[in-house]
């Protein structure tokens, strides 16, 4: 419950739009509603231009939320731009629909064909009213995480189609530094994003090199990719090779045969996966966590959603699910350190099913772990193989698309054929070498993760510098990583 003066009600009477929330405040620079310095959705007319003129096309998915930039553009003719949002070079595109807005999908339109563009109708087009404000400075303010969070007070529309009200942007109080200060802030943030881009590329290269390292140390030489023309897609097999098998051309393709031959040629002992597995079990989706029964055990239940394609498992995201299990069910699927999880159902058009994850010691620190019915768990016989090595090996097989031929697809969902998965060959160097391989690969992945964290910290440190600029040197800001608005003095709208 809250009270508001009648004179402060402008436009909407939705109570959510009048909740108190923190906004920028500074004694150093004047504070003005953003609507005083920008216009939203300015009228843009293409009248008088040839209808066959090319312009840039920017759909929502072309916005890179990590950098607040446009990844790439395609083109449309002016005659085909009717029904889309229109804009000019230098305009700011800011997503108004959730969750795009919350993810920071916004960018200043640059390098447009003929300096004209069109795109999603879910963009607000923002433009400075005069030369006293720089659009890149506005973009910096609007990408702040707390601003994006507060914008949710101005959601409207039907469930699932909520959009930020235009009023949020018009009445948001912002500091207006002089142009020189704005340019300095923009320069600091641009340099930070350049450093972030460099560190993320280093991280990506390191992750890609893990595959190369494993292939090299196991002496597996992958066949060269051939042009995907009709000649290279035609192959012949003997009818006897298909007896009691699947009639799936991928399984008998030349590419798959060459991959298997490359593995067979490696100079190491080998066993089938099923021969090194102590036990395996399918997952259980359990019961709703709201179920009230003192005998039930609440567990974080791992799904394919938690499989991180870059590292391992992401159990700290806001999408994790807790489910409840009877003690008998939990004892059957309870996860232990060094267990390996296999995604047996899911996948997508671009991503084969069969991703793997490894249960590390510290994952048990906060709550018991279970796994869903779309996941299969295996536990390795440590007398025959090192669990960490088997995880790295299975991950490699997925990355080079060996598992792509071990799946079926129904109703858009890919399913791993577990019988074939368990009969795949596992190359087994001596146990000490397996340990060394696993340690080296894990170290590469850990360094790649550290680079990603460093990339984020570069941005956070830049925000702290900007915070000092906005507050003035008389304000002492401790150099710790936090959102810029945490340190800025707060006011209320």
Beta fraction of the residues? Answer: 15-25%
Number of helices: 11
What percentage of residues falls in helices of 4 or more residues? 25-40%
Q: Mean pLDDT, nearest integer?
A: 85
Category by helix and strand content: alpha+beta
**Strand segment count:** 29
Strand order within the widest sheet? 3-12-9-10
How far is the first residue's CA from the last residue's CA?
16 Å
Low-confidence stretches: 16-22, 479-493
Please summarize the sheet with the most strands.
4 strands, antiparallel
Radius of gyration: 28 Å
What general form does the structure show?
globular
Summarize, please.
By secondary structure, this protein is α+β, with helices and mostly antiparallel strands.
Secondary structure layout:
Layout: E1 22-24, E2 30-33, E3 38-40, E4 54-58, E5 63-64, E6 69-70, E7 74-77, E8 85-88, E9 92-95, E10 106-108, E11 116-119, E12 123-128, H1 135-142, H2 145-150, E13 155-156, E14 163-164, H3 166-171, E15 173-176, H4 179-217, H5 230-233, H6 254-264, E16 269-272, E17 277-282, E18 287-288, E19 297-302, E20 321-325, H7 327-333, E21 340-343, E22 345-346, E23 356-358, E24 369-371, E25 375-380, H8 387-399, E26 407-410, E27 413-416, H9 418-422, E28 425-428, H10 431-471, H11 484-487, E29 490-492
Parallel strand pairs: 4-11, 19-24
Antiparallel strand pairs: 1-29, 2-15, 3-12, 4-7, 5-6, 8-11, 9-10, 9-12, 13-14, 16-28, 17-25, 18-20, 19-20, 21-23, 21-25, 22-27, 26-27
């Amino acid at each position: 419950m809250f009270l508001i003066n009648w004179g402060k009600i402008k436009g909407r009477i939705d109570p959510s739009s009048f909740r108190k929330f923190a906004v920028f405040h500074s004694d150093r620079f004047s504070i003005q509603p953003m609507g005083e310095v920008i216009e939203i959705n300015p009228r843009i007319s293409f009248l008088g231009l040839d209808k066959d003129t090319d312009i840039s096309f920017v759909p929502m998915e072309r916005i890179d939320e990590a950098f607040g930039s446009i990844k790439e553009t395609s083109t449309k003719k002016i005659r085909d731009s009717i029904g889309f949002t229109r804009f000019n070079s230098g305009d700011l595109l800011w997503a108004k629909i959730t969750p795009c807005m919350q993810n920071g999908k916004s960018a200043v339109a640059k390098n447009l064909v003929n300096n004209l563009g069109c795109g999603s109708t879910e963009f607000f087009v923002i433009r400075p009213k005069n030369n006293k404000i720089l659009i890149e400075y506005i973009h910096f303010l609007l990408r702040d995480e707390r601003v994006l969070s507060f914008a949710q007070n101005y959601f409207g529309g039907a469930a699932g189609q909520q959009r930020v009200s235009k009023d949020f942007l018009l009445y948001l109080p912002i500091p207006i530094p002089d142009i020189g200060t704005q340019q300095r802030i923009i320069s600091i943030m641009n340099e930070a994003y350049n450093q972030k881009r460099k560190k993320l590329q280093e991280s990506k290269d390191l992750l890609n090199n893990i595959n190369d390292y494993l292939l090299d140390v196991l002496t597996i030489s992958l066949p060269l990719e051939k042009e995907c023309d009709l000649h290279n897609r035609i192959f012949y097999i003997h009818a006897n090779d298909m007896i009691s098998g699947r009639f799936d051309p991928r399984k008998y393709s030349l590419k798959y045969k060459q991959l298997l031959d490359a593995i067979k040629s490696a100079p190491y002992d080998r066993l089938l996966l099923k021969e090194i597995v102590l036990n395996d079990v399918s997952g259980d989706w359990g019961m709703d966590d709201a179920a009230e029964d003192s005998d039930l055990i609440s567990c974080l239940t791992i799904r394919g959603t938690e499989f991180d394609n870059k590292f391992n498992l992401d159990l700290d995201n806001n999408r994790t699910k807790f489910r409840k299990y009877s003690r008998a069910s939990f004892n059957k699927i309870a996860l232990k350190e060094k267990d390996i999880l296999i995604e047996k159902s899911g996948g997508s058009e671009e991503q084969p099913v069969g991703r793997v994850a490894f249960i590390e010691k510290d994952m048990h620190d906060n709550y018991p772990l279970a796994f869903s019915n779309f996941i299969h768990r295996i536990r390795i016989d440590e007398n025959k193989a090192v669990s960490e090595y088997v995880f790295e090996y299975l991950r490699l097989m997925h990355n080079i698309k060996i598992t792509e031929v071990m799946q079926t697809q129904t109703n858009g969902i890919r399913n791993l054929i577990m019988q074939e998965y368990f009969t795949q060959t596992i190359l087994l160097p001596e146990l000490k070498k397996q340990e060394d391989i696993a340690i080296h690969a894990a170290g590469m992945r850990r360094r790649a993760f550290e680079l990603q964290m460093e990339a984020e910290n570069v941005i956070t440190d830049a925000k702290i510098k900007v915070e000092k600029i906005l507050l003035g040197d008389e304000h002492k800001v401790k150099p710790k990583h936090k959102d810029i608005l945490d340190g800025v003095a707060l006011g209320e709208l």
